[in-house]
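YM 10:42: TonB-dependent receptor sequence, as discussed on the call
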Amino acid sequence: MKLKPTALAASVMAAHLSLIPAHAQQEVQSDDNRANPQQLDRVEVRARQASDTDMRRRQPVAKQIYGREELDKYGDTQLADVLKRLPGINMQGNQLRMRGLGGAFTQILVNGDPAPPGFALDQVNPASVERIEVSKAPTADQSAQAIAGTVNIILKDAPRVVQKDLRLGLAYNHDKPVVNGSFTYGDRKGGLGVVMPVSFFSWRLLNENDGIRQGRDAQGKPQTLATAGTDIPYGHGVNLAPRINWKLGEDETLTLQGFAVRNNFRNVGETDTTVLQGSAPSSVDDQFTNRGYFQHARLNLQYNNRFQEDQRLELRVGAGGASSEFDTRFLGRNAAGLPTVDRRTTGEGQNRGLNLSGKYSQFVGEAHTVTAGGELERRSREESRRTLENGVDLLPGIEGQPFDATVTRSALFVQDEWEISPQWSAYLGLRNERIRTDSEGSGSTFRSTSSVLTPLLHLNYKFDPKARDLLRMSLTRSYKAPDVQQLIARPTINTNYPTTGPNTETAPDRVGNPALEPELATGLDLAWEKYLSGGSMLSVGVFHRRITGLIRNSLSLQNVGWASQPRWVAMPVNLSRVHTSGLELEIKGRAGELFPSLFEPATALSLRASLSIYRSKVEDLPGPDNRLEQQQPWSFTFGADYRLKDVPVSMGLNLNFTPSYDVQQTLLSRLSTGRARGMDAYVLWTMSRSDSLRFGVQNLAPVANTSATVYTSGDFALSERRQRAWYAVNWEHKF
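YM 10:58: structure's back
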C-alpha cells in the first residue's frame, strides 16, 4: 500500500524556524552537545549553565527539557519512574502515554534513534541519562512516527571537569530489601572527553489481584467465576553507557557512544478460583512461574564537521543487537487438589539492526538555514515459541513454529529554518519515509510496504526581543506504522478454552492482520509560553489531531482453521477516522515569583502543576463514550520542593491523578477504567559538599487499579490490582 500526500503538503510550504542561539555554558560548547545540533546558529557565551527552562525557551520548536535536577530528585533507579511525574505523560504498566493516547502513538528515541523492539523504559537507570527531551510535534530530521509526541532519551555526555560520583541504595516493597547503585567517571583532557556511567538495580514487588468473570463454560452454559491471587515480580539489571568525544580540529569532532542493558526477570504467583455460578473450570488452584531475560547492546559513531561558518556536515552509523528469552509454566489443580493442567511456554528472540544517516546544513542568504539529509535502517528479528500442555504440543504446525521478519526503513528530508524578522521565525520541513516489512514462517509469511510523505510547519512569534513571551504554532503530519506482531496472522489461543470446543467473548483467541495500513494524523498545535525573569514559566496550549485508519481490535465469531467449531477472535483492523483535541496548562517556578502576594521573594519553595483535558471521538463506533482507548478525560499533576532555612535539608512531593472513565471499544464491548493516583515524596539531607543522603517513597497511599469489560450479551470481566508503596534510601558521594 502506498499513501499519497494530501493538499496539506501545499498549504504547509510556508516558512521555517529562527536561528535561536544555542544555550552555552561558561565556555563554548561543542556542536554535538547543543540543544538543536542541526542548526548553524551563533555561539553565545554565558556566565552560568542554562537551566532546563532556559533551554526550553530557546528551542526552535515546542519542546520540554528535563536535566539532572529532575533525573536525580527522587533517587529513582528506573527511568519510567521519572517520566510518570512529567506534565502530560502517564505510565500504564511499562507503556508511556502522551496526551492520553496509547503507548503505540508515542515515539521513543535514544540519542535520536528509534528504540529497538523489546526496549522498555524501566530497563534504563537515570544515572546513564544526560537529559530527556519531550516534543509534542514531529520535526523533519527525526522519524514522524509520533502522533502523540516524541520522548528522546539523551545519554550521558562527557563532563567539562573531572566527575567521580558514587551512589549506593536500598529499597523495599515486599518481604526483603533490594540493592542498587551506580558509579560515573568522566573527564576531559585536551580534545578528548570520556564518560563511563555504570549502574545496577534490582526490584522485588507484591501485587494482589482480584477478579470476577461472567461468561460461558466449555459446554456453552452460563458460568460466573471469582478469582483472588498474588504475584511477585523480581529481578535485577545493569546499564552501561560509555561515551568518547574526540575533537579532531577546531570545528571537527568524532563521537563514539555505546549503550548496553541486561535485565533478568522473574515472576511467581498463584490464583484461587471460586465458582459463583455454573460448573467449575478444569483448575481452581493455579500456580505460575515466569523467568527470562532481555539484553541489548548498541554502538554509534558520529562525525561532525563545520567546513566554514555557514556549512556543516553530520554523518552517523550505528549497529546493535538484542536478545530475549522467557520460560513460563502454569500448574492447575482441581477442587480435590489433583493436578489437571501442566502448561509450559518457552520462547526466544533475536534482533539485529544497522542504521546509516547523514545531513548537510548551509546558510542561504541572511535568514535561512537549509538542511537536507537521509536515513537508512535495517532491522531483522528471529523468534520462536513453543507451548506444551500436559506434554503435548498445542496447535502442532502453527504454535511453536519459528518466524523471522525484516524491517527496512528509508527516509529523505529537507528543512528550512527561516528568521523572518526579529519577532517571527519559522521552521518548514518535508520528510518522506518508507517502511517495508518481510516475514517468513508458518502462518506468518507476508510483505507489507508503506510510504508516507509528512509536511511540517512550525511558527514562533516573540512578543518581546528577549523572548519572555512566545507564541508557538505547528501544523504537521505524523503517522504510526503497524508493528510486526499486529501484522502476523498466526493465532494465539486462549488456553482456558481448548480448541476442541468453543470459547467466549470474554476469552477470545487473538490473531494479527497482514492487511493493516498505517494510521495517519494531521495535527494542529498552538501554545503560549511566558517566561519570567526569575526562571519561572507558564504555558497554555491546545491541540487537535485528525487520525485516519485508526487501528483497533475487532471482536467477532469466526470459522477458524485451528478449531472445528466457531471461535471468538480478536483481530486488529483499520477504522475510518477519529478526532482528538486537548487543552494543556502548565506552571512552574519559585513560589515568591509566581504568587508574590502569598509568598516572600526569598521563600525557598518551588511549585509546579499541570492540567490536561482531552476529548476524542471514533466515528465508526456509537457514542456517547466512543473515545480513544486509554485516553482519560483529564489528568492533573502537582509538585512542590522546599529547602529548610537553617538546616541542609530539602524535601518534595509529587501528586498525579486521573479520573475513572468509560470507552466503547467495539460494537460488542465497553471498557470501564477506574481512577488512578500516584503520590511520591523525598527528603534530601546534604551532609557535606561530598556526601548526601536521600530518602524516597513512591506510590504512597496507593489506590487499587480497576477495569471492567462489559459485553452486549451481559457477560463481563472485572479486575482489581493492588500495589504497595516503594521505599528507598540512597547515599551519594562525590569524589
